[in-house]
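--- STAGE predict ---
source: upstream dedup step, 1 unique chain passed
mode: sequence only
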Amino acid sequence: MEKYINVVNNRIDDLIKITISERKQHGIGISFLDFCDPERMDFRYVAVSNEIFPQEVREKYLERMMSVPNSIIFFLIYDGNDELFYEVDLDKNSSFHQTNS
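--- STAGE serialize ---
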């Protein structure tokens, strides 16, 4: 997953902008970053309230999503074999991840 993290981090500013816009329009959710084709990254934001939000993902991560500050946005990076739930705190002054990891 490390090579995908590097791709995500290289594009994080754009991914954050898109995620913020989608979250404002549709509510809390996850930006799904699909690397099933290793040559490209597909992006899709899905709100928790959307009927297409995967039940398996809801069961794994919903409690976490609802227990963190609102300044945190979520990415689910997957490649068909592995997945990584990646949190980004938009509040630069937050110590949430330092005290609650």
